[in-house]
Amino acid sequence: MSETAASACHTEHALLVLLGQYAQHLGLIKALMAVPLHQQTRTFSPQTKVLEFLVAILAGLPHLEDLSRDGRPLDQDQAVAHAW
Does the CA dihedral 43-44-49-51 come out positive or negative? Predict the structure, then answer.
C-alpha cells in the first residue's frame, strides 16, 4: 500500500493489515490462489474462500459470519481488503 493510500485509510485491524502485507511479501496469497480446489465458483473462487477463512482465524473470530456481523466488520475494512 502506498504511503498516500495508507494515510487515507483508517482501520481498527492494523495487525491484519500488517499480516496481509507480509503474506503478500512471502508469496503466500499467490501460492494459495494457485492451489487447485474442485469446488464451484459462483461469486468467489474456492481459493478466495480459504483466504477469507485464514483471515477470520487470524482475527480470532469464532464464526465466519462474524466477518460481517461483528461490531467492527472485517468485510467493510478497506485497508484489510487491500492488504489481503
Answer: negative
**Rounded Cα–Cα distance for residues 38 and 57 (Å):** 23
Is the pLDDT at 59 greater than 50? The verdict is: yes
| pTM given for the model | 0.75
Distances (CA, A) of 78 to 6, 10, 38, 44, 64: 10, 8, 29, 18, 18
- What residues does each domain of the chain span? 3-83
Computed on alpha carbons and rounded to an integer, the radius of gyration of the chain in Å comes to 13
